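Q: Got a minute? One more chain.
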Amino acid sequence: MRKPVPTIAALLCAWMCAAPALADYPDRPVRMIVPFGAGGGVDALARPLAREMSQILGQSVIVENKPSTNGQIGMTEVARAEPDGYTVVMSSAAYAITPAFYQDLPYDIRKDFAPVTILASNPLVLVASTHFKPSTVQQMIDMARAKAGSVNFAAPGNSGIHFLAGELLGSMAGVKWTSVPYKGAGPAFPDLISGQVDVMFDNPASSLPFVQSGRLKLIATTGQQRLAAAGNAPTVAEVLPGFDAANWFVLAAPAGTPPDRVRKLYEASQRAMKQPALVEFMDRNGIGTILSTPEEAGRYIQSEAAKWTGVVRDNRLAVQ
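A: Always. Here it is, folded:
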């Protein structure tokens, strides 16, 4: 009858010893993996977010770029990381779209990740080289109709929202583009600026600075309403009614990360996004804050995955 006593005491001791460890999280730097190149839209938001979260958490949040054409390298690294709250991924709508194109991914977004929050969302911008003659969506469509494949589209990732936006535009306009894949928007910019490729759908945060400096020109935005941050440029929908494409930004940890640590990351990101520097960044770049709870983020991701899987299947799209 006395045997359970030491066992219970040992359990109580283990629990009491573990409690401070949980309470002290984080006690070392947190890695924020961005599965795309430096200089792209995800990277542009990740860096100020990491700075603000570092102040809030009292530990450095270090952004690490792990670029690949569709983000698989960075996503796989996080999926296989120790689920201790010290490795997270910040990605875009590609998080839910990529599985629609690939059935043999080395990770499963439903089983291998613990969503922290959907941080924000924004319409895309259609930007072009200053060497590209068309300056409107209609002129670009007319050029493609006159000669199939005459318009080169830079695709930051060959299976993400930017790729799908270009394919959707071509499908609705009844034209064919030449798609040129890049490992993120950052690597595409030199070729776009020099005129080696003609146009690109991108996030406002990474493209608008090039427009404002005169190195690129803005043709249109992809929301249903004009975007003030983009100078009220025309929308694609004004030429092709019903066209709509938006990007969103997600923060996630490996599956199995303790719920209290997921919650702490959520609360830190929520506070960070409300800091003046990030509020100004969001307003300047036409990004709308969402900050869903982990539970809401999980439901949103699943609905987006189902939607884009249907679009890819119904339109018989494939990776270029």
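A: The first strand starts at residue 30 and ends at 34.
Q: Perfect, thanks.
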